[in-house]
Design goal:
single chain, mainly alpha, 2 domains, 7 helices, 0% strand
């Protein structure tokens, strides 16, 4: 893939924008992968997100999957270093400093100020994935039913996921 440096820098930029969790970068990730570079379709983006959610570990393992899909092992390396390694190293270096100053007024103000940003990014991520995945009345109905089951609190989320997968196999086979 001749776009390997582009993939690396997209992921590096997104790593610095992942305030409050990686789900907040989904709209920008979608814009880059689907709209700008056309490396994926809507359906492929939704599938990559689903695979990332099912895999054990960080929920943004979808980035590794996308890197592999686009450029094989070199894409995996670009994805890992760009999104995970650089910012993890920075966090490791500055974590002691942050711990020392966490109780200062400016640090508490920064945390309070970033909380609404994180919530807004999270909601925009949900909207982006839903827009890519809900393609017709059946997918909308299945998503609504799964959401209601999750909100009821009566079923284990793993069971809701398994039932949703079975329904998908039944309706979209």
């Amino acid at each position: 893939m001749s776009d390997l440096p582009t993939l690396f820098f997209i992921y590096l930029k997104l790593a610095f924008l992942a305030i409050g969790g990686a789900a907040g970068i989904l709209p920008e990730l979608y814009r880059e992968l689907v709209l700008t570079h056309r490396w994926m379709s809507d359906a492929e983006f939704a599938q990559a997100y689903a695979i990332g959610q099912l895999a054990p570990g960080p929920n943004m393992l979808m980035l590794i999957y996308v890197g592999y899909r686009l450029a094989g092992l070199a894409g995996v390396g670009a994805a890992f270093v760009g999104f995970f390694a650089v910012t993890s190293t920075i966090c490791a270096v500055f974590s002691g400093w942050w711990t020392r100053y966490a109780d200062t007024p400016w640090a508490r103000a920064a945390q309070r100020g970033l909380a609404p940003v994180a919530v807004g990014l999270l909601f925009s991520g949900v909207w982006t994935v839903a827009s890519a995945a809900l393609t017709d009345g059946t997918t909308f109905l299945l998503a609504l039913l799964a959401t209601l089951l999750m909100l009821s609190g009566r079923l284990n989320p793993v069971l809701v996921i398994a039932l949703s997968g079975a329904a998908g196999l039944l309706f979209f086979r």
